[in-house]
Amino acid sequence: MSAGRKAFGDFLRLEYSEENILFWQACEELKLLEDPEKIDEKARTIYEDYVSILSPKEVSLDSRVRDLINQSMQNPTKTTFDEAQMQIYTLMHRDSYPRYLNSPEYKRIAQISPRRTSVCLG
After folding, report:
1. Alpha carbons 57 and 82: distance in angstroms, whole number
2. Gene3D superfamilies from the xrefs (predicted)?
């Protein structure tokens, strides 16, 4: 994990929204898998940890995307969470990240390393 992504994750933890970046990272890990059994296992873990309404780390998804995920969980693939991941990315990009850029934590990091202050999620 990059230092920038870690710093952003630390900020999200302070805001009680760390589940967003954890979900995003878990989806990225899922995309790297090739073994169907491991894909199924990882997808179910992501579902239980971040999509299930019973999870304390549930991410905020609209009902259409949640329904798509529920349907695809019978036979999950690497792309099962793509739309959900994009929703969470957009949420972080429009909401959390601008707040992070204005935070004392980011300003402190920017003073230490003025040329490398952006966060690359991809």
Report:
1. 18
2. 1.10.196.10, Regulator of G-protein Signalling 4, domain 2
Residue 111 has pLDDT above 90, yes or no: no
Q: Please provide the distance, in angstroms rounded to a whole number, between the alpha carbons at the two ends of the chain.
A: 11
Type of residue numbered 40: D
Task: State residue 62's pLDDT score.
Answer: 96
Q: Residue 98's closest CA among 38, 11, 36, 35?
A: 11
Q: Is 52 exposed, middle or buried (0-12, 13-18, 19+ CB in 10 A)?
A: middle
**Is residue 16 left, alpha or beta, with left meaning phi > 0 and alpha meaning psi from -120 to 50?**
left
What pLDDT shows up at residue 122? 54
